[in-house]
Amino acid sequence: MPEPAAAYGRLQDWRALVTGAGSQGDGVGTGRAISVLFAREGARLALLDRDVERAAATQAMIAERGGEARVFPADLTQPTEAAAAVAQALAWLGGLDVLVNNLGLGSGGARLEEMADAAWAQGLDLNLNSAVFVTRAAIAALLAGQGKAVVNIASVAGLRAHGVGAYGPAKAALIQFTRELAVMYGPQGLRANAIAPGHILTPLVERFAGPAARETRRRIAPLEIEGDAWDVAQAALFLAGPEARFITGACLPVDGGVTAIAPLAAYERLAGESATR
To answer: How many Å apart are CA 221 and CA 208, to the nearest integer?
Structure first.
């Protein structure tokens, strides 16, 4: 979908922190799309990313649209760096209303007997531990804010097995971490929800998925269209905003229906046969 043109001020004067806010290349990944869309809706953004140039490109995109953001570089897989970056971001923002844990990478995809210890650790660090470290550092400010919302970007790999080693288990744990947050802090007004993107076209995907792979990803889903980062961003905006005030502990697939389709029906789609019964 194209970048949303309309804005309604749903996050006006809210303060948001987005991790993994940069994007590889010149395209728009989920962290960049979420940051831009939140800024268009009136939020001030703290952008956390290890790659300063990528995050700065997101900051520039926000500025071009009249928004305000600042980059706070850090390796969020390191608890001390994560805590320091969050503290700096909170000092600049003056508080916090929304946290989006978007940082993640398809790491640790080897078979178990082939997986190095470092690959397993990296998969957990990038896709789970970084969210835990950032949330822990930000929770007091969130509970004092007006939005009191956490949105964790998981994956359909956390809902369905793909045989990829560390990535799926880490994303599944992130979804459960989201539920634990919802129960732990719900009495204090905090809402925590997850999004499970599936078969989304991002700059990172373009690096390893050729035309044939993209066509397979498109055809296997019931909607038979290719999602992009703006689809994820729209879901994040809804879950973060006041319209979702009675939603917590949920995991929303943004996947064109790929987690809803039965295996035989998906096979028939790819084989060009009728998927109806």
So the answer is: 20
